[in-house]
Automatic annotation (TrEMBL), chains A, B:
Residues 1-16 have a biased composition (Basic and acidic residues). Keywords: DNA-binding. Residues 47-66 bind DNA. Residues 24-84 form the HTH tetR-type domain. InterPro entries: DNA-bd_HTH_TetR-type_CS, Homeodomain-like_sf, HTH-type_TetR-like_transc_reg, HTH_TetR, TetR_C_15. Residues 1-23 are annotated as: Disordered. It comes from the Bacteria. The keyword Amino-acid biosynthesis does not apply. PANTHER family: HTH-TYPE TRANSCRIPTIONAL REGULATOR PKSA (PTHR30055:SF226), HTH-TYPE TRANSCRIPTIONAL REGULATOR RUTR (PTHR30055). This is TetR/AcrR family transcriptional regulator. It comes from Isoptericola peretonis. PROSITE patterns: HTH_TETR_1, HTH_TETR_2. SUPFAM superfamilies: Homeodomain-like (SSF46689).
Length: 213, 213
DNA sequence: GGAGAATACGAGCAATCACTCGCATATGTC
DNA sequence: GACATATGCGAGTGATTGCTCGTATTCTCC
């Protein structure tokens, strides 16, 4: 996985170009622009030329930093994986998951996820798809993996008696439930958004109460 | 809405061509082929030329029956809406929903839906998308509406005390949960598929038990 | 201040795709 | 069997798009 991440800014020969500070800034700008375009147009309909235009650069410059569209998605996915990991770390900072009620545990997981989705609307264009095209699936695979890893760890901690296959299924299902609710929550606003977030928490908690025995 | 539906077989001048039996058969063949192509490639990546080839006809013949790609999706959606309605009618034939336990009710709704998804794998390529492109959204809007209508009717029957806004939210959320689970269920097979279907039933039932009060 | 590398440009190429058009054949009706 | 219409064909078109390439500018380091 780490070697795959490194490849993302490696040359065809495996030689990584040495980025100047300007280049690093450009990469961030491109990713920001890509997020906005993905939200506006959807991933499939988004064109690389549109991303370049949104970033205020030429198509040629874009391809200086990303070899293709999927690699842009991958860049965003890496960002998001880091942001989510940080959020979850903060949510459980100095807290023992075992000591929480199921409702509190679910709240601590979902509320930051909701906040993250609201703050980064492009996130769901990459992650909340039930049938991503192959290239996008590959780009977001590490993100998916890290999310499932965290979910599986929580399930294992709460229900150590569960057979591994059952635990895996429960964490996949719970993740899927959250994934499905995010577009609904983000699409709403104000009080309705909070109500939908509450429904998401309620659904996941209710499911887990049954599934974890 | 009804006039929009009629427009689908209407000419530009509003004159509907009179189909021969041969033409009706072709339409069915094209829809069958489109379903297979959508499953193989996904809706966005599927090309109309590929659909024509899969159906064993020329692109020109395809456009004899469908004005564009979205209209093919709409044709499939109409088929699916009818199939689902029939399935649900059969599931509740001579049964009073009020007299069932929540678990039985959920089972009667979800099991046919699972069977339908397994039998028609293209269904989820149209329906189980969290962010469909605008054209597809328009094509599947009637299908979405009829599904939500049925869900809302069941919710209203079970929880007449719920405010309309709350009832609507519950039925939307429940529908979304089912929608999200279908790709997981269909992707699995054999015993694992049945276990995932059981998780879907369990999640929806657990949610509804809380949400319906 | 000069060499080498990174950054930047943007016109345009090659490929793809939704859809058309002119014309031929099949079908149903009188 | 003749007429009208439905069905059928498939090469081709106009538009789009991911991506390249030749070239010009800016940065870093000596």
């Amino acid at each position: 996985m780490t070697s795959a991440d490194d490849r993302s800014d490696a040359d065809v020969d495996g030689r990584a170009p040495r980025r100047q500070a300007r280049g690093q800034r450009r990469i961030e700008e491109i990713l920001d622009a890509a997020g906005r375009v993905f939200v506006r147009e959807g991933y499939d309909a988004a064109t690389t030329n549109a991303v370049a235009k949104e970033a205020g650069i030429s198509p040629g410059s874009l391809y200086q930093y990303f070899r293709n569209k999927d690699e842009i998605a991958q860049g965003l996915a890496v960002r998001y994986a880091a942001g989510l990991a940080e959020l979850q770390r903060a949510a459980f900072d100095g807290v023992d998951p075992q000591g929480l009620s199921l409702e509190d545990l679910v709240r601590r997981v979902i509320d930051p996820v909701v906040a993250f989705n609201v703050a980064h609307p492009a996130f769901k264009t990459l992650f909340a798809r039930t049938d991503p095209p192959p290239g996008l699936a590959e780009a977001t695979a590490p993100l998916d993996a890290s999310i499932h890893e965290r979910a599986a760890a929580l399930v294992a901690a709460r229900a150590p008696q569960l057979a591994p296959a059952d635990a895996a299924r429960v964490s996949v299902v719970a993740t899927q439930l959250v994934r499905a609710m995010m577009p609904l929550v983000v699409a709403a606003s104000g009080a309705e958004r909070e109500r939908l977030a509450a429904e998401a928490r309620s659904a996941v908690a209710a499911y887990l109460r049954v599934a974890l025995g």
